[in-house]
Amino acid sequence: MENSILTSVKKMLGMAEDYTAFDDDILIHINSVFSTLMQLGIGPIDGFTIEDDTVEWDDYVTAGVPANELNSVRTYVFLKLRLIFDPPQSSYFIASMERQIAEFEWRLNVAREYALYPSEEEV
């Protein structure tokens, strides 16, 4: 699995790794999604940004995202980016993506709260 954040997002968007015409646009949108995640309490408190294809998903995990939540974060970043960068033409598909995004936000928030406030059995 590709570990570069930019390269993996481009792949999920159906772009070739060596096609760089939209890299600046994609980077801006990726960083906006990371800002949203930070506001949801996911990731480092000071935020997380990328500037090129050298930053990897492992860097985001190291910065404060539990490794078991990384796949959810990857999918969330892709869904948000797809709606911003290349929205589908069908309103049904857009609504479906918006529901998936809302579910990922809820699940990531629950996982964050569980990590901050474990159950009484674990204390």
Q: In summary, what is this structure?
A:
This protein is mainly α and 123 residues long.
Give the overall silhouette.
globular
Give the DSSP E fraction (strand runs of 2 or more residues): under 5%
**SSE class:** mainly alpha
Unreliably modeled segments? none
Descriptive account of the structure:
The protein has 5 helices and no strands. The protein has 123 residues and is an all-alpha fold. The chain has one domain. The longest helix has 26 residues. It starts with a helix and ends in a 7-residue tail after the last helix. The relative contact order is 0.15.
Would you spell out the secondary-structure blueprint of this structure?
Blueprint: H1 5-12, H2 23-39, H3 57-62, H4 70-85, H5 91-116
Helix pairs in contact: 2-4, 4-5
Keywords summarizing the entry:
globular; 123 residues; mainly alpha; 5 helices
